[in-house]
């Protein structure tokens, strides 16, 4: 028997590719997503038949898939595509496992769903080079990762400040001390996260800019050598030598075009990535961390002692569960499993710091 989870994964993938296709403005690109939807649906049908069931017994799209659909309606379906492409590994693993179990022949689509998308785009006469580049940019832009970063940023703020607040609460019984430490922890953590994000984005941009300038210097100093490099790149893609040389000669005649080609094909740099704002990334990181970090501090604005500790713990547990539940959008795990796991680890960290705070407080008082 093939697990319902494997079948559900295929159903969700088919559903989401179809939704993306319906909201794709470019007809040729939409056709690509429709074909991927059909491929995933065919896997689900094959799986259900292995279980001696009818196609009519296929399950509906899951709550996770429908939630991703709603996210796409708000933030754009590039976000959904980013999350969906991240699930391809689990999809291929489930297909391979089922084929091995039933000794059925493997298919290239089992392990290369993203490659199939690219191949369809490459071989379709209706898809222009600009559309192909747009799809590849989508694939690399990992819209899902933007959502993931938001969730993890909030999680970092909540867990770290919850632990800090519990540690101070264990060491002291004063409301003002905990409140001061909690706000200091929020600001320190948020500023640290923001600075780290700014440095990360800025240093990456500076590295890429330096590499791009070096490539331009090489292009100006040794255009013949760069022409040979371009020809070799084309030849490595399976293009005959004479044709590759002609294509390289055409590109090298336009220095800007040759530069763009080389930074993409040789350096693997997407020029669009350099347009990201380091300051925007820093502010986003600051806000997301702060939202998570303020949750365990809120009760101490109004209460002190164990009452504030209990309320803070309850609010933090709810926040941790919600974060765990949201993470399932990316992992596909059970909402309850992921949510309670997040709560367990968060409470464990807070309990440890509370206990250490108690020991320190007793030691100081004694």
Structure commentary:
This protein has 366 residues and is mainly alpha-helical. It has 16 helices and no strands. It has helices at 4-22, 27-50, 63-75, 77-86, 88-102, 108-111, 113-123, 129-141, 143-171, 175-221, 223-236, 241-252, 255-265, 278-294, 305-331, 335-365. Helix 4 crosses helix 8, helix 9 packs across helix 14 (278-294) and helix 10 (175-221) packs across helix 13 (255-265). The relative contact order is 0.10.
- Sheet/helix structural class: mainly alpha
Helix content: over 70%
| Share of residues in strands | under 5%
Total strand segments:
0
Poorly predicted spans: 105-112, 127-134, 136-144
Largest beta-sheet details: none
What is the H/E order?
Answer: HHHHHHHHHHHHHHHH
The assembly state of the depicted protein chains is: single chain
Calculate the mean pLDDT score and round it. Answer: 78
Any idea what the shape is?
A: flat
Number of helices: 16
Cα-atom radius of gyration: 26 Å
């Amino acid at each position: 028997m093939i697990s319902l989870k494997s079948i559900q994964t295929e159903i969700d993938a088919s559903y989401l590719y179809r939704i993306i296709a319906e909201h794709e403005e470019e007809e040729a690109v939409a056709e690509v997503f429709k074909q991927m939807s059909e491929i995933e649906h065919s896997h689900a049908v094959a799986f259900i038949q292995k279980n001696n069931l009818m196609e009519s017994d296929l399950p509906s799209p899951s709550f996770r898939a429908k939630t991703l659909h709603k996210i796409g309606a708000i933030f754009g379906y590039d976000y959904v595509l980013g999350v969906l492409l991240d699930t391809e590994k689990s999809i291929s693993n489930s297909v391979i496992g089922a084929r091995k179990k039933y000794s059925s022949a493997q298919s290239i689509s089992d392990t290369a769903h993203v490659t199939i998308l690219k191949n369809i785009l490459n071989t379709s006469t209706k898809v222009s080079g600009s559309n192909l580049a747009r799809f590849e940019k989508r694939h690399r832009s990992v819209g899902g990762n933007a959502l993931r970063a938001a969730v993890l940023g909030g999680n970092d703020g909540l867990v770290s400040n919850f632990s800090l607040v519990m540690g101070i609460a264990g060491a002291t019984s004063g409301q003002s001390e905990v409140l001061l430490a909690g706000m200091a922890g929020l600001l320190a953590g948020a500023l640290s996260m923001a600075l780290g994000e700014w440095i990360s984005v800025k240093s990456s941009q500076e590295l890429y800019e330096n590499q791009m300038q070096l490539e331009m210097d090489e292009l100006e100093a040794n255009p013949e050598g760069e022409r040979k490099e371009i020809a070799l790149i084309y030849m490595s893609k399976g293009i005959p030598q004479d044709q590759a040389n002609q294509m390289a000669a055409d590109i090298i005649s336009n220095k800007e075009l040759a530069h763009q080609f080389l930074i993409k094909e040789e350096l693997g740099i997407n020029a669009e990535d350099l347009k990201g704002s380091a300051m925007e990334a820093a502010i986003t990181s600051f806000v997301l961390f702060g939202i998570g970090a303020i949750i365990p501090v809120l009760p101490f604005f109004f209460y002190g002692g164990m009452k504030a500790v209990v309320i803070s713990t309850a609010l933090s547990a709810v926040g941790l569960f919600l974060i765990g539940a949201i993470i399932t959008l990316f992992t596909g795990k059970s909402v309850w499993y992921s949510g309670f796991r997040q709560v367990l680890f968060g409470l464990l960290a807070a309990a440890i710091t509370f206990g250490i705070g108690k020991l320190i407080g007793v030691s100081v008082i004694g």
